[in-house]
Design goal:
The protein is an alpha/beta fold. Helices cover 34% and strands 12% of the residues. It has a single domain (35-288), classed as NAD(P)-binding Rossmann-like Domain (Rossmann fold). Bound molecules: nicotinamide-adenine-dinucleotide and magnesium ion. Residues 1-44 are annotated as: Disordered.
Length: 295
């Protein structure tokens, strides 16, 4: 099967109930049951990004891994960002991409740290010879249904990871981006339909959407486009990392397709927004949410 084969979206991928499972953050793709599909065996490239040089954050697992595989198969050389604890997942991605003849350079670190964000951009420029796209997929989500027990450290960590990193990485990247370059952020359906137990996360994702819209206007004169992808429920380690086993077992049930999306189903949105084919698109958000209404 490839992404171009016709199929019924209701039945192509696993639906709940899923085996009960929990992990601690950041979670690992290799521990998930069933295994997420990141497009390893299905994504077919069509030379849409030949010669592109990019950074993908959160590239070890989930949506970031699917984006990295797709961008690489379209011809891009990449620097892959992830947390040091995720080395095993990251090496799987690197080995796959380099075995296909592309550059995939690993640089673990914490994007909640400005110095690491600067180093990530410098590494891409040095190792790839420049930068054409900054694809920011990394994110932190945790659950807490009572603001009285949501502590400042958790709130701070969510904002540092989900929104300060965009500020730092974008600032570091701009001096290297020529006209025709692109920036892609990752928001969430939580930005428009927040859950009561995800206050800090939902607010940070709302900020991602606004950051995207404001920066798109600021960078338009430089010929740099800024767009966002807003996923609905997607089968990644973020869920067993932040929700209880019961919630994970029914994940995606409430969507019209009755199942969560797989990371591979978001890859084409990132490719489209990175590629010159979306040249009149900036400040926009592509929602990939399995039919849940997005406002
Ligand atoms: P994931 O756990 O596979 O990916 C998130 C990645 O973020 C991790 O792999 C990790 O490398 C990275 N990360 C987290 N904190 C970091 C830090 N401090 N420094 C560096 N890297 C860090 O889960 P995913 O679902 O693929 O998440 C990708 C993005 O999609 C996130 O921004 C998430 O908020 C967003 N999203 C996911 C869903 C979903 O249902 N899975 C829904 C809406 C939005
Ligand atoms: Mg991960």
């Amino acid at each position: 099967m490839t992404q171009y084969d016709k199929h019924d979206p209701n039945t192509i991928y696993p639906a709940p109930p899923f085996p009960k499972q929990e992990q601690s953050l950041p979670g690992a793709a290799w521990k998930m049951d069933p295994k997420p599909d990141h497009g390893e065996t299905s994504y077919v490239g069509r030379d849409r990004l030949t010669g592109f040089r990019g950074i993908v954050t959160g590239a070890d697992s989930g949506i970031g891994r699917a984006a990295a595989i797709a961008l690489s198969r379209e011809g891009a050389d990449l620097v892959l960002s992830y947390l040091p604890d995720e080395q095993r997942d990251a090496e799987e991605v690197r080995d796959l991409l380099t075995s296909e003849g592309r550059k995939a350079i690993l640089l673990p670190g914490d994007i909640a740290d400005e110095e690491y964000c600067n180093r990530l951009v410098e590494t891409a420029v040095d190792e790839l010879g420049g930068l054409d796209t900054l694809v920011m997929v990394a994110g932190r989500m945790d659950s807490n249904d009572d603001i009285l027990t949501l502590d400042t450290a958790a709130f701070d960590s969510t904002f540092k990871t989900n929104i300060y990193s965009l500020f730092w990485l974008t600032k570091a990247a701009i001096p290297h981006l020529e006209p025709g370059s692109t920036i892609v952020t990752t928001s969430s359906s939580q930005a428009s339909s927040p859950s009561p137990d995800k206050v800090d996360y939902a607010v940070s994702k709302g900020a991602v959407k606004i950051f995207t819209e404001a920066m798109a206007q600021q960078l338009a004169p430089k010929g740099i486009r800024v767009n966002s992808v807003a996923p609905g429920p997607v089968w990644t380690p973020l869920q067993p990392g932040s929700d209880d086993a019961e919630t994970v077992s029914t994940f995606g049930e409430g969507t019209p397709f009755g199942r969560p999306g797989q990371p591979a189903e978001l890859a084409a949105a990132y490719v489209h927004l990175v590629s010159p084919e979306s040249s009149y698109q900036t400040g926009s958000t592509i929602s990939v949410a399995g039919g849940n209404p997005v406002f």
